[in-house]
Design a protein that fits this description.
Length: 449
């Protein structure tokens, strides 16, 4: 279906619906305006043209046409499109979601200028009955044994390495201070030597078999260790090779753990007793798992909603999302991994990451559709509350956090996050939500969070 209209007396636009997410705008600029655009372009050229035999600003139009005529239409095209595209989009009453794709005819003096703008728009989404949406929320449980595991982890972190008495025989759990030199076929190889290296026996940190051959040594002893590098170890010159390491044991140390008492809790910077520390750890574990449970619920709700909705996704928006994902990966890992490895990962994402990008766009379109349907917006008070929450997590005051957000352009993203939270809360309220057993997870140390 085509809709036509005049932007002004000299510009006409016709809009065709190519698909649910694509509009084709044919824009026609009349002869007179094209002529004025060429006149203006030649006028600007005359001011700056430096042609032998003519004073600046006095070059005849015919000479300018002979010298610059072949290239000037490209400039006029850009000017005419930039001057008319926004008005054409407004007249056609479309809202682009990505940069329009322009296909233009070459402008000529004495002829109208026509171009086509392919504009991507949001699809019209018919939301289902949200009672059909199903969500799964993991039950939040924290057992006494898990609290004790966290206490023991803190105890291990607070331990100290103490040098053993002379003549102590090293066993698993001991830490050795070593000087060693590695050789293959009698020759020292790069990366195979160290001085003052610390090695905790029983951790498997070294090549298989290395630590086992050091069990039983004493401080001051020498021992030769013979091991074979795994076939897939890394460098070709080491893969599968037999190596000998001449080791000098400088020291044997044991781990000394603090007593589990109220002083231990105080040493961790906690007010109160060991039992109060356990209470704090339980509350923090519950808080962490509750947040994880909400995220798991949100994910299941969105997966269910996506399965109930069938709509076309704007390909240009998907491409933009993919580019954003690649940029985020590049920023995150640049300098952390070798450049060739990073470039290979980015290449794979470019080839294989489109389904994930399309899924993210599909989800965002559904969030926006629900927000519009329910009139959800992020109020200034809600944004301030989120900023205060972020500031508290970073140990900052709210005002510096807001200033940082304004300076670095975060506010729009924060508003979007607040809207998303409201949408997911609305989904959870109206969907069928069931409690499920939690999947096994590893909780990071949460003391002090």
């Amino acid at each position: 279906m085509a809709e036509a209209g005049n932007i002004s007396d000299d510009i006409r636009v016709e809009c065709n619906e190519t698909s649910s997410v694509l509009r084709s705008l044919r824009v026609e600029v009349d002869v007179a305006r094209v002529g004025r655009a060429f006149d203006s372009a030649y006028g600007e050229l005359r001011k700056s043209a430096n042609i032998k035999g003519f004073r600046p600003g006095k070059v005849p139009r015919s000479v300018l046409e002979r010298v610059y005529g072949p290239s000037l239409p490209d400039q006029v095209e850009r000017v005419l499109v930039s001057e008319t595209l926004a008005a054409a989009i407004e007249t056609a009453e479309v809202k682009p979601v990505s940069e329009p794709d322009i296909d233009a005819e070459r402008p000529e003096v004495g002829s109208p200028f026509c171009y086509t703008a392919r504009v991507e728009v949001k699809p019209e989404i018919e939301l289902p009955d949200l009672g059909q949406v199903e969500g799964r929320k993991p039950i939040v449980l924290v057992g006494d044994d898990e609290v004790e595991t966290e206490v023991e982890r803190l105890r291990q972190d607070a331990s100290k390495w103490v040098e053993e008495a002379e003549g102590t025989v090293a066993a698993d759990g001991h830490s050795l201070t070593l000087d060693f030199v590695g050789r293959i076929d009698g020759k020292v190889f790069q990366g195979g030597s160290a001085e003052g290296a610390d090695l905790e026996l029983g951790t498997g940190a070294m090549i298989p078999g290395f630590e086992d051959q050091l069990v039983g040594v004493k401080a001051g002893e020498s021992r030769q260790v013979e091991v074979s590098f795994p076939d897939d170890y890394g460098p070709d010159e080491l893969n599968g090779r037999l190596a000998q390491f001449d080791c000098e044991v400088v020291a044997v140390r044991r781990k000394e753990l603090p007593e589990l008492d109220d002083e231990f809790a105080k040493d961790l910077g906690q007010d109160g007793s060991l039992d109060e520390l356990r209470t704090r750890l339980r509350a923090d574990l519950e808080k962490t798992r509750d947040a994880n449970a909400v995220r798991a619920l949100d994910r299941s709700l969105m997966e269910s909603l996506v399965a109930l909705c069938d709509f076309e996704v704007p390909p240009g928006v998907v491409q933009g999302q993919l580019q954003s994902q690649m940029q985020s990966m590049h920023q995150q890992f640049q300098g952390q991994v070798p450049e060739d490895v990073l470039h290979e990962q980015l290449r794979r994402m470019r080839e294989d990451g489109r389904p994930m990008a399309e899924q993210r766009v599909r989800e965002q379109l559904l969030v926006d559709a629900i927000a519009v349907d329910q009139g959800m917006e992020a109020s200034s008070e809600e944004v301030d509350a989120r900023l205060a929450e972020m500031a508290k997590a970073q140990g900052m005051d709210a005002e510096p956090m807001r200033a940082m957000a304004e300076q670095q352009g975060w506010l729009t993203a924060i508003e979007q996050e607040v809207r998303e939270r409201k949408v997911y809360a609305y989904l959870a309220e109206h969907a069928k939500v069931v409690d499920v057993e939690p999947e096994p997870t590893e909780d990071a140390s949460i003391l002090g969070d």
